[in-house]
Specification:
Distance between the termini: 9 Å
Helix content: 25-40%
Order of helices and strands: EEHHEHH
Strand content: 15-25%
Shape: elongated
Radius of gyration: 14 Å
Oligomer: single chain
Largest sheet: 3 strands, antiparallel
Number of helices: 4
C-alpha cells in the first residue's frame, strides 16, 4: 500500500536540510513549519507577502513511511475509524 507525501524545498533549502516531507498535520501552515525546521525567517521576510517561492511535489511512499509522518490527530482518527487508507 502506498500514500502521497508532500515534499517541500524552499530557495537554498539544501543549506538547511531540505527538501523535507511535511507532516500531514502541518500542511495548514507550511511557512511556520519550515521555520521550525531551521529555515531562516529572514529569508522568507525578504519576499513580498504571499510570493515566497516554494517548490512542492508529491511522492508516493510505503504505508509505513506515511505513518511516521502523520500527526497524533491523524492516528487517533484512524483508530476511531474517522479516516480510511
Amino acid at each position: 500500500m502506498t500514500a502521497d507525501i508532500l515534499i517541500v524545498d524552499p530557495p537554498d533549502g539544501h543549506r538547511y536540510g531540505f527538501p523535507k516531507a511535511v507532516p500531514d498535520d502541518r500542511r495548514h501552515d507550511i511557512i511556520a513549519w519550515i521555520v521550525e525546521q531551521g529555515y531562516p525567517r529572514s529569508i522568507i521576510d525578504e519576499w513580498v507577502e504571499g510570493h515566497f517561492p516554494l517548490r512542492c511535489w508529491w511522492e508516493e511512499a510505503p504505508h509505513e513511511a506515511r505513518a511516521a509522518l502523520e500527526g497524533p490527530q491523524d492516528r487517533m482518527a484512524k483508530h476511531l475509524g474517522g479516516k480510511n487508507d
